Amino acid sequence: MDQIKIEFPKKLDDFGKIQMSRNRWAVGYVKLIRNNNTVILADIYIYDRSTRVFQFLFNFKREMNFRRRGFGSELLAKTIEFCKNHGIEEIKGTAKGDLDMLIPWYKKHGFAIDENNGIYLKLNS
Fold it and tell me: How far is CA 125 from CA 1, 9, 82, in A?
């Protein structure tokens, strides 16, 4: 049975890191920078650690890819909830990477996107 664990910082001062694990394996993290009542989503990362093990004996692939399996969405939703609970009024940042995937993903989670790939989410505290 899968055990998903999300570790939150005890408080959100200037910087915070939210980490997610599954069965004790690190799944991903979110790094946050606080500026008064705004949080900058500095980084959100879900691990892909697919590797071939014992390739010289037989072809055995250990799947450790956590991408495209809903973990990022769950981590982002928990991050939004955490920010609301700490009096944050807005989350913002910049979408970087596979923009064809990220822009619709952020929009699905309620973020507005500007022409420079800036992301913005107003929170109702």
Answer: 35, 19, 11
